[in-house]
Write a structure and sequence with these properties.
There is one protein chain. The protein is an alpha+beta fold. Among the domains are: 84 residues, conserved putative lor/sdh protein from methanococcus maripaludis s2 fold (Beta Barrel); 75 residues, RNA polymerase II/Efflux pump adaptor protein, barrel-sandwich hybrid domain (OB fold (Dihydrolipoamide Acetyltransferase, E2P)), CATH 2.40.50. The protein is elongated and about 140 Å long. The two termini are 20 Å apart.
């Protein structure tokens, strides 16, 4: 009898441990309308290569050899200016016509042609203006490729070298990513800012990167294999309260708020050392909106009723036989909770457990008395 009693207590403890009191509080269940409006996207968590990166800020500059000027070999005055600032010009096209000071009728003139193709960044001449040999009349920059120069803190200089790749974004085009390699490192550090220049040669066929633009750099310095990681946008919360939403394995349109332990982070991904398992469907787009969703939508009870085909308590637990009978007699209106005089599932469980323990103790007492009576 004592063994039976001990076994019962163990099974009772196991059942209580298996119940998740936080399930209802942490589960967000959406209806079809909410799912459509939030436009949620999930990704499957998996172990993969994880890039270690360094973040830096910098600016776009004209690449070496991609700047040229138009000047005159003879003094005179400008009689025609075809170059206009911020417009494109082809190599060999006429930029300025200069009338020479040498006598003649008419005086001889010189056509000044563009030495390279590119965009006109400066025009310092107007028709009728005097021209001297030393004057730079027009400046042209070729933007087919540019230099993106990062200001890297000097204490990180030992982690970068020529040939390493980086993902570069200009603040004017945050959704456009450029991949480039380190072309050279600065020969001197900036004593005032404590940084060293790291230059990347970036192909710019659409000429959207312009000199002077601010840029953000994620320089890849290494790679680790078999790292559990998820997109950074999936992680919500701050400080020690970081969490993600994982699609429920059983309920449709249900997402469990799950605390996570994080490791390293790069510009795209976050390493997860606890809380997420391979195969979990983690919400990325729309994760922030889920924090405020769920209120006023489908309840946990309604979702489980639909999934399993039978009534559940308000907290999602299975109904006892007495509760199910009471719910059926009232047309399902009192299934679960404290409605219609039906006890909550936890109260029913402890009431039944207490009664059974009492019966077992009485039986045990009677058994122990029999030898004495004999």
């Amino acid at each position: 009898m004592l063994r039976t009693l001990a076994l019962f207590l163990i099974l009772t403890a196991a059942a209580l441990a298996a119940a998740d009191p936080n399930r209802s509080a942490n589960l967000v269940i959406l209806d079809e309308t909410a799912v459509k409006n939030l436009n949620l996207v999930t990704v499957e968590a998996e172990e993969a290569d994880f890039e270690e990166t360094i973040f830096a800020l910098g600016r776009i500059r004209v690449a070496s050899g991609h700047r040229a000027v138009v000047s005159s070999r003879v003094p005179g005055r400008a009689i025609s200016v075809s170059a206009h600032i911020d417009t494109k010009i082809e190599k060999g096209a006429e930029a300025v016509v200069v009338e020479s000071r040498q006598p003649g009728d008419p005086p001889p003139s010189v056509r000044l042609l563009a030495p390279i193709s590119g965009h006109i960044s400066m025009v310092k001449i107007a028709p009728g203006q005097p021209v001297e040999v030393a004057d730079s009349l027009v400046e042209i920059v070729d933007l087919s490729s540019v230099h993106a120069v990062a200001a890297l803190p000097e204490h990180l200089a030992n982690r970068v070298q020529v040939g390493q790749k980086a993902r570069i974004r200009a603040t004017g085009y945050p959704d456009k990513e450029f991949i480039a390699e380190i072309e050279h490192l600065g020969t001197e550090a900036d004593a005032a800012s404590g940084t060293i220049e790291v230059a990347f040669h970036v192909e710019n066929p659409e000429a959207i990167l312009r000199p002077g633009m601010r840029a953000e750099f994620s320089i890849v310095t290494g790679k680790r294999e078999g790292v559990m990681s998820i997109p950074a946008e999936a992680v919500q919360g701050d400080g020690g309260q970081r969490f993600v939403y994982i699609a429920d394995y059983e309920l449709k349109h249900a997402f469990m708020k799950t605390p996570v332990v994080l490791g390293a982070q790069n510009d795209r991904m976050v390493e997860v050392t606890g809380g997420v398992l391979p195969g979990d469907q983690v919400v990325t787009r729309g994760a922030y909106a889920l924090i405020f969703a769920g209120k006023g939508n489908t309840s946990l009870k309604e979702a489980l009723d639909a999934a399993h085909g039978h009534p559940h308590a308000d907290d999602g637990s299975e109904l006892t036989a007495e509760q199910a009978k009471a719910a059926a007699s009232k047309g399902g209106s009192g299934a679960g909770g404290n409605r219609a005089g039906v006890l909550p599932p936890v109260a029913m469980f402890f009431a039944g457990t207490t009664g059974l323990l009492f019966i077992l103790l009485v039986a045990l007492g009677l058994k122990l008395r029999k030898p004495n009576a004999a």
